[in-house]
Design goal:
CATH topology of one domain: Rossmann fold
CATH architecture of one domain: 3-Layer(aba) Sandwich
Strand content: 15-25%
Helix content: 40-55%
Radius of gyration: 20 Å
Distance between the termini: 34 Å
Shape: globular
CATH class of one domain: Alpha Beta
Structural class: alpha/beta
Order of helices and strands: EHEEHEHHEHEEHEEHEEHEHHH
Largest sheet: 7 strands, parallel
Strand order of the largest sheet: 3-2-1-4-5-6-10
Number of strands: 12
């Protein structure tokens, strides 16, 4: 298989590429990573794999149809895995337009190029376009409401979620109108190595170690289902190989946690692994801040479909995955410092938690 990955220098994309290059063996002939390298795209995420002869990095825009078309033809691409997206809710509230440009217009142009390539592909029946989306398209859940399923009506509540919902609908339309063999996945909150420092878990880890406040929105009782990124990457590969075209698969970690509980768990792990010099708990740095506008109260994923149809389930518990994540950040301070001090120095590291 020859695969084109969009946004492969980002958090989830780089973990997917890393997993494929280390686990796929000769079944993966070529992997092309197309990334525009906006603020969250970091080539350092894959620097140690750059010499792999199967790996090709291309600096470019998914909205550049001639570029994408040339890559698809030149590398005889058999599958597109589409990660590239603006993905931070706070940024979408501050400035929605880049989210529409990348997530909607960019996806449309990528679909146009993929469709033209598919029509000329010598093995059209095996070509696949996998669109990676989010559970935020479904809106917000009440405390006792059933988890989001693949048939839950869309009700996006932020500009980011609305832009991803629009891209999901475009992918569906290209399948039903043109027959393009697409697959869509909607995942819950990811966490793990190489997570950009503005997101909740890495922000808390790094701020704690730097002696900074640990900002928590509102009362901190916003609930998310946490999915370890390597479990997500494995699920995506399973969907690409075995999923039914035209179908949507929800991918969740089966780990619902309130944001405040996540922060306290991180503090406890850091208390064990890297204690403060004064002997106090990192939890003393927790600071409650004004809530985000329109903050969704709860997300939860029903992933029984992918479990039943594709025999996938997460390998990591929240406890094991979070411990692995904290250990990774402790061992990779230079990676984070390069972002926070150099590439991200003028950005405000605000509270997160999607």
């Amino acid at each position: 298989m020859n695969v084109l990955v969009t946004g492969g220098c980002g958090f989830i994309g780089s973990n997917f590429i890393r997993q494929r290059l280390t686990e796929s063996g000769p079944s993966l002939k070529c992997l092309v990573n197309l990334d525009l390298l906006t603020y969250a795209g970091n080539p350092a995420n894959l620097a140690d794999l750059a010499s792999d002869p199967r790996y090709f990095f291309v600096h470019g825009d998914i909205g550049d149809e001639p570029l994408v078309g040339g890559l698809l033809a030149r590398h005889a691409i058999d599958a597109v895995v589409h990660f590239a997206a603006e993905s931070h809710v706070d940024r979408s509230i501050d400035s929605p337009e880049p989210f529409i440009q990348t997530n909607v217009t960019g996806t449309l142009r990528l679909l146009n190029a993929a469709r033209r390539h598919w029509l000329r592909h010598p093995a059209r029946e095996t070509f696949r376009f996998l669109h990676v989306s989010t559970d935020e398209v479904y809106g917000s859940l009440g405390p006792g409401a059933p988890a989001f399923s693949e048939t839950t009506p869309y009700a996006p509540n932020s500009p980011y979620a609305a832009s991803k919902a629009a891209s999901d609908h475009l992918v569906r339309a290209f399948h039903h109108t043109y027959g393009l063999p697409v697959l869509t996945t909607n995942c819950s909150n990811n966490y793990g190595p190489y997570h950009f420092p503005e997101k909740l878990i890495p922000l808390v880890i790094l701020n704690a170690l730097d002696g900074k406040p640990l900002p928590v929105y509102g009362d901190g009782q916003q609930i998310r289902d946490w999915l370890f990124v390597e479990d997500h990457a494995a699920a995506l590969w399973r969907v690409l190989q075995r999923g039914r075209t035209g179908e949507t698969y929800n991918i969740g970690g089966l780990n619902e946690r309130a944001n405040l509980d996540v922060v306290r768990t991180i503090c406890a792990l850091l208390d064990e692994r890297s204690p403060r010099a004064d002997g106090l708990s990192y939890a003393s740095q927790i600071t409650f801040v004004a809530d985000r506008p329109g903050h969704d109260r709860r997300y939860a994923i029903d992933c029984s479909k992918i479990q039943a149809e594709l025999a996938w389930q997460p390998a990591e518990s929240f406890e094991s995955g979070l411990a692995h994540t904290v250990d990774w950040y402790l061992a990779h301070r230079a990676w984070a410092d390069d972002i926070t001090r150099n590439r991200y120095a003028r950005e405000r590291l605000g509270a997160s938690g999607r």
